[in-house]
Specification:
Layout: H1 5-18, H2 50-56, H3 61-69, H4 84-109, H5 111-117, H6 120-135, H7 139-148, H8 155-172, H9 182-199, H10 205-217, H11 222-226, H12 236-253, E1 259-261, E2 267-270, H13 286-297, H14 303-313, H15 318-328, H16 347-354, H17 361-369, H18 383-386, H19 401-415, H20 419-438, H21 441-456, H22 461-478, H23 484-492, H24 496-517, H25 534-543, H26 558-573, H27 577-580, H28 586-593
Antiparallel strand pairs: 1-2
Helix pairs in contact: 1-24, 3-4, 4-5, 4-16, 4-19, 4-20, 4-22, 5-20, 6-7, 7-8, 7-13, 7-15, 8-12, 9-10, 9-12, 10-12, 12-13, 19-20, 20-22, 21-22
Length: 596
């Protein structure tokens, strides 16, 4: 087989990491639920989790149950359990089943896509690390910029926009390229005309704001837009105008094509439109562009002050904050107080939990905006999951986010992955199925009818699962549901069959070897009374050829005398006072085992 060794080593490492958790929370993690009081970070941060919230604030359970009872997957309201906690459990378990169905279905279609998809968050972390070194800013600054520009933004556009902003702010502006150019005038006029055309005379507040910013910065240099003010004197309006300036400068002076991000790291080919042209970046709102600029400018602040700026700019909504956390520490475990790992519940993940392959966030938003008469089209979406009631100042609960998050975490526990890995796997699988459904009006209507039937009681939840699965598989039979990056990865590395066999076989092999070879560093290889057990000694000898570890010699002899001299010296010179005085420390246990 023609295999790129560096690629496969990276892939295998990501697969192993996706199965592991880091017991020590990264201090940069932010709280995704924010009750009243000072913000909490790192090991003290709080997570949007229904189980945690219900334990702290039982009175909110009936409110969450009421919200869940309006969802179609709950079935007829008349058939729901009488106890609120049972309603939450019923709907939560159905969400869990939908998520698990999605992952298992696509695992059967293409298992290598699922194992690859587990590496998306480690890849995002690697992007941040690489760009941090290249552009001279902290990795959490890059991650913050990616996170605040993520809402309603496809992943290729999301990362491309962050990188273009970094280029403008870290290279162009410091090197004196700060003036207004004819290209910026041309781009400004194009945006203005397009905004007016699309709004058809009915401009929303964001459109009006953008047009105002374009007029305010017209013909001005970067320094003129800042008005010579230092960071702390710049207002939100200043930052929004600076963000708009960066957009114009980047578009006028740099190529706007986007390359396909690959879950294994790096980028594939340029993404093309249906006409064969390079797809362009979907630039964010003035508000989000301003946040990116402010994050970059705050990079030079002292750590504590910078953390507070990040906390504010990441907003109050749990989605962006969870997305940030999952990139900062993809393998995060629970905190010492028991707060679980954050999972990113965006509109796609929420739709997956609800079995709504018929809607995209943009379509749902458009229908809401036009007061579409059939509320079944939109009632499961957006606000209820990520920003709506029930809210709580006491616990920081937001909508039903914690219920969906707990469903994801339960699936992760079943399948042996971290929560963030399961979310990224489900996101890829759900999008493949929903894209096929949304491209076919008849299929979209079938899904809507399934939900209406489930709500009326004419269709049970299990019947819905079967029909929904059959619908997606029928599309797969017509045209394989394979992501574009999968094809590019095949071309770069190996055939599908080789990849599938290699990933699954070598992963299992490395898992066994890792458990055996590292036993001397793990609990399995250590004697509770001190030192290593037989398994630990053999694993040490395998990793250190030529070594020959023996059992302790408490009865005396040259080996004991030599060991005691060395360990006593280590205890005196290299061990902290706390460890030296702790009778249960490993070094004291070893000294006792050898009768030193």
């Amino acid at each position: 087989m023609n295999i790129d060794k560096s690629y496969w080593l990276g892939r295998l490492k990501e697969l192993i990491e996706a199965k592991k958790t880091d017991p020590k929370p990264d201090p940069r993690l932010v709280s995704t639920r924010q009750p009243e009081g000072e913000p909490k970070f790192g090991e003290k941060k709080l997570t949007q989790s229904y189980e945690r919230i219900a334990a702290e604030e039982p009175k909110i359970v009936p409110k969450i149950a009421k919200a869940l009872s309006t969802l179609h997957i709950a079935g007829p309201e008349s058939a729901l359990p009488s106890k609120p906690e049972e309603v939450v459990d019923l709907v939560g378990r159905r969400m869990e089943a939908n998520i698990e169905d999605t992952i298992n279905r696509h695992g059967n279609i293409d298992s290598s896509v699922m194992t690859s998809s587990a590496g998306w968050y480690p890849t995002a972390k690697r992007y941040a690390g690489n760009w941090s070194q290249k552009h001279g800013v902290k990795s959490e600054t890059v991650t913050g910029m990616i996170s605040v520009s993520s809402p309603q933004n496809p992943w290729p556009s999301n990362v491309a926009q962050a990188e273009r902003t970094l280029v403008t702010m870290s290279q162009d502006i410091p090197n004196g390229r700060t003036g207004w150019t004819p290209g910026m005038s041309k781009e400004s006029e194009r945006i203005r005309e397009q905004t007016i055309k699309l709004s058809k005379g009915n401009q929303d507040p964001e459109d009006s704001k953008l047009l105002g910013h374009l007029e305010a910065i017209q013909g001005k240099s970067w320094d003129e837009v800042t008005e010579g003010k230092p960071f702390h004197e710049l207002t939100d309006e200043h930052f929004e105008r600076l963000g708009t300036w960066v957009r114009l400068h980047s578009t006028a002076n740099h190529p706007q094509g986007m390359r396909e991000p690959l879950p294994s790291g790096g980028f594939g080919d340029f993404i093309k439109t249906a006409k064969g042209e390079h797809a362009k970046i979907k630039w964010q709102s003035s508000n989000n562009l301003g946040k990116m600029v402010k994050l970059h400018m705050a990079d030079a602040l002292p750590d504590q002050e910078r953390s507070k700026v990040h906390d504010v700019l990441l907003g109050r909504g749990p989605k962006v904050r969870s997305f940030y956390n999952n990139q900062i520490q993809p393998d995060a475990g629970s905190t010492p107080s028991g707060e679980p790992q954050d999972v990113t519940v965006d509109i796609h993940t929420g739709a997956d939990a609800l079995g709504r392959g018929d809607l995209t966030s943009s379509l749902a938003g458009a229908l809401r905006k036009r007061n579409y008469p059939d509320t079944s089209f939109t009632k499961d979406f957006g606000g209820m999951i990520m920003s709506g009631a029930p809210k709580s100042k006491q616990t920081g609960n937001v909508g039903i986010y914690g219920v969906v998050g707990d469903a994801l975490r339960r699936v992760a526990g079943k399948l042996g992955y971290g929560g963030s890995a399961i979310q990224s796997m489900g996101w890829v699988a759900r999008k493949l199925g929903s894209d096929a459904i949304q491209a076919d009006p008849d299929s979209s209507e079938q899904v809507r009818q399934m939900h209406r039937d489930m709500r009326s009681g004419d269709l049970s939840f299990d019947q819905f699962r079967s029909k929904y699965n059959d619908l997606i598989m029928s599309h797969h039979k017509q045209k394989p549901l394979v992501p574009t990056w999968k094809t590019q990865q095949q071309q770069a590395d190996s055939s599908f069959l080789e990849e599938k066999i290699l990933v699954e076989f070598v992963y299992k092999l490395l898992k066994v070897l890792n458990e055996e070879s590292a036993a001397w560093q793990r609990k399995e290889g250590k004697n509770p009374k001190g030192g290593l057990n037989e398994k630990g000694r053999k694993s040490y000898e395998r990793e250190n050829p030529g070594s020959d570890l023996k059992r302790p010699q408490p009865e005396g002899g040259k080996r004991r005398d030599s060991f005691c001299r060395r360990m006593k010296g280590m205890k005196k010179k290299l061990t902290s006072a706390k460890t030296a005085n702790d009778p249960n420390s490993r070094i004291n246990k070893s000294l006792r085992a050898w009768n030193c």
